[in-house]
């Protein structure tokens, strides 16, 4: 009896321990770690903003952006940092792992965080605008852009109690700092070698300006990264890929126009062109580049129907090179078609159309192989009632010398009359010297 009582008490104690452990686990704060190791573009912008909203909706204790970016588009950057500022839970940006960077547009994403932290051997800075309102614009427009971005970054730094003077220098002078100097100059809030240690360090901290009190000690970290489909879209918006897809589209549709009914070239060309147009829709483009690309497509297509001895194809290749180099000029230096890729694709198109034109010229030089005149010289056999069997068909026939023709006699066609009566002559027999 005593043994049974001890066994029951042991079981009850075990049950209580398990229940307490489960309750403690349920009470542990959750942190959503969003991996952003990529350019800042419309695809990564959608991914980050969606995950920030998810963290808020599912009541995570905090959202952490694990940042490693060379920068990107200012429009996407603004949407990300505005989402950070509007979030009703703490946002932590952690520049990591070692060797990571938060440069250009990445600095704005970092400075908008409630807590900004860096891992050792990481860097931050160099936020001078390029592209849309950057170095390639005229002096007045560039000054307006620099003033705009400097003002925005100063405001972010000031609101979060960080170094305003450095924020201004990051835009105007492309200032860049390693992690230890960034912390010493109050550019970032915390240095931490790992995410768990960071969460332990900042536990109980009150953020500026929202006044969140962080509860991150012992938090359960749930990591999330871009889905396969998002990674595909991120690949598709590479300018070199876009130009390649559009080139495949032009080739496929042109081949389908030359030889209607092949289906496969037209299908591949249509799909490639649509996917390429998606990339054009996502990235900022130059209309001068678009017009040059359309002109190139028109030159290539017209080469088949207009005898220019390759002149139109060459003009198309030149238009393609200039068009592709200008196409994404407004997107900045990070989103440009490389000169090597442009020349390679243009050269391939030129070779393709040269090969096609050679084949077209060969076909044009061949004798006509359709119609009744293709029967001249064909061998046949006489049938009854003055008919001859040639090429699987029965035709009326007359002898070239006016003589009679016997059924079964081998003949060859000499001419086709206007009345579609074949003029035939006896075929030479084997060994004949005629």
Give me a quick take on this structure.
The strands form three sheets. Strands 8-5-3-2-1-9 form a six-stranded parallel β-sheet, with helices on both faces. A five-stranded mixed beta barrel has the order 10-11-12-14-13.
Write the layout of secondary structure elements.
Layout: H1 2-27, E1 30-36, H2 42-57, E2 62-67, H3 74-86, E3 91-95, E4 101-103, H4 105-111, E5 115-118, E6 123-125, H5 139-159, H6 164-172, E7 176-178, H7 179-184, E8 190-191, H8 195-202, E9 220-224, H9 228-236, H10 239-258, H11 264-282, H12 287-303, H13 311-327, H14 339-365, E10 379-382, E11 387-390, E12 393-399, E13 410-416, E14 422-426
Plain-language structure description:
By secondary structure, this protein is of the alpha/beta class. It folds into 3 domains: 26-231, 2-enoyl-CoA Hydratase, Chain A, domain 1, CATH 3.90.226; 237-365, no CATH class; 372-426, Nucleic acid-binding proteins (OB fold (Dihydrolipoamide Acetyltransferase, E2P), Beta Barrel). The chain is 50% helix and 15% strand. The chain is built from 14 helices and 14 strands. The protein has a 6-stranded parallel β-sheet with strand order 8-5-3-2-1-9, with helices on both faces. The longest helix is centred in the last third of the chain and has 27 residues, at 339-365.
């Amino acid at each position: 009896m005593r043994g049974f009582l001890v066994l029951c008490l042991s079981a009850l104690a075990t049950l209580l321990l398990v229940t307490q452990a489960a309750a403690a686990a349920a009470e542990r704060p959750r942190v959503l770690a969003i991996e952003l190791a990529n350019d800042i573009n419309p695809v990564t912008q959608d991914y980050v903003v969606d995950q920030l909203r998810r963290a808020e909706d599912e009541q995570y204790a905090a959202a952490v952006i694990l940042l490693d970016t060379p920068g990107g588009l200012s429009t996407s950057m603004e949407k990300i940092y505005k989402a950070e500022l509007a979030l009703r839970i703490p946002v932590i940006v952690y520049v990591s792992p070692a060797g990571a960077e938060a440069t250009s547009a990445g600095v704005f994403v970092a400075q908008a965080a409630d807590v900004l932290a860096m891992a050792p051997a990481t860097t931050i800075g160099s936020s001078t605008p390029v592209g849309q309102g950057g170095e390639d614009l005229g002096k007045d427009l560039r000054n307006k852009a620099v003033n705009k971005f400097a003002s925005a970054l100063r405001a972010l730094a000031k609101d979060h109690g960080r170094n305003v003077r450095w924020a201004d220098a990051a835009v105007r002078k492309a200032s860049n700092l390693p992690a230890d100097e960034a912390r010493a100059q109050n550019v970032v809030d915390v240095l931490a070698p790992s995410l768990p240690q960071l969460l332990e360090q900042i536990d109980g901290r009150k953020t500026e300006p929202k006044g969140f009190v962080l509860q991150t000690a012992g938090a359960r970290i749930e990591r999330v990264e871009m889905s396969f489909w998002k990674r595909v879209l991120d690949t598709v918006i590479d300018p070199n890929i876009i130009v390649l897809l559009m080139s495949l589209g032009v080739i496929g549709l042109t081949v389908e126009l030359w030889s209607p009914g092949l289906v496969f070239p037209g299908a591949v060309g249509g799909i490639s062109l649509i996917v390429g147009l998606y990339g054009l829709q996502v990235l900022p483009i130059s209309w001068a580049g678009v017009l040059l690309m359309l002109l190139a497509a028109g030159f290539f297509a017209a080469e088949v129907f207009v005898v220019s001895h390759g002149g139109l194809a060459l003009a198309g290749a030149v238009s393609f090179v200039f068009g592709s180099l200008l196409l994404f000029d407004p997107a900045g230096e990070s989103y440009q078609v490389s000169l090597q890729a442009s020349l390679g694709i243009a050269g391939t198109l030129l070779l393709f159309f040269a090969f096609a034109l050679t084949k077209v010229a060969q076909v044009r030089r061949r004798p006509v192989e359709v119609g009744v005149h293709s029967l001249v010289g064909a061998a046949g056999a006489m049938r009854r009632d003055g008919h001859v069997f040639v090429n699987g068909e029965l035709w009326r026939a007359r002898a070239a010398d006016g003589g009679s023709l016997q059924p079964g006699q081998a003949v060859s066609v000499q001419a086709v009359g206007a009345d579609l009566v074949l003029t035939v002559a006896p075929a030479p027999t084997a060994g004949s010297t005629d």
